[in-house]
Amino acid sequence: MVLNFTLPLSRAIDVSTQELDVQVYDNTYFIDISWKDPSTVMLSPDVSGKCRTTLETPSPSQEILDYANSLGIDEQGDDDLGAHFSQKVSIHCE
């Protein structure tokens, strides 16, 4: 299944002065939401010429893997557990 969606921001961010990192995960249930490759991350036309993206593949530590595997079917991990398993897109603009 392929889903396309737009992520509007609740407030404007000046990405010329700071990098923007995006991670998509559910902290209550495992679901794999991933980009196939960096070219599938698309920016709006008004910034695509000024910005570039990088895609980082997760590499959770053995400690995190052991912790996740220790959780029972009715247990929930820490709020940021999903972040260890999700890709990260970084947006750099000039």
From TrEMBL:
It comes from the Bacteria. Pfam families: DUF1007. This is Uncharacterized protein. It comes from Vibrio thalassae.
